[in-house]
């Protein structure tokens, strides 16, 4: 996600479901700023965030069944700002929140 580049105002919408939460929090902040520039005025952003604040966490074996004696090689990173800060970052990026 962090390697994407677009010119300002060229996108009508961005959808990022179950993705942004896998970036470190500072990268989440930066990506939202970039998206705010890429999406034209009046465009749309559909994203989801975790419901609690998580500074950063790695969960091993998150898609595997536990197998005794076998160490998982499957890791997933998670982080989140929490609901209030996530809303603030979305608004700071230039989007209005519709509920």
UniProtKB/TrEMBL annotation:
Gene3D superfamilies from the UniProt entry: Vaccinia Virus protein VP39 (3.40.50.150)
InterPro entries given in the database record: SAM-dependent_MTases_sf
Superkingdom assignment: Eukaryota
UniProt protein name: Uncharacterized protein
Source organism phylogeny: Eukaryota, Fungi, Dikarya, Basidiomycota, Agaricomycotina
């Amino acid at each position: 996600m962090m390697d994407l580049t677009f010119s300002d105002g060229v996108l009508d919408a961005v959808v990022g479901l179950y993705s942004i939460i896998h970036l470190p929090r500072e990268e989440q902040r930066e990506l939202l700023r970039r998206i705010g520039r890429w999406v034209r005025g009046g465009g749309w952003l559909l994203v989801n965030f975790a419901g609690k604040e998580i500074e950063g966490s790695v969960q091993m074996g998150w898609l595997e069944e536990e197998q005794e004696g076998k160490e998982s090689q499957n890791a997933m990173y998670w982080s989140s700002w929490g609901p209030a800060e996530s809303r603030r970052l979305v608004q700071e990026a230039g989007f209005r929140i519709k509920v």
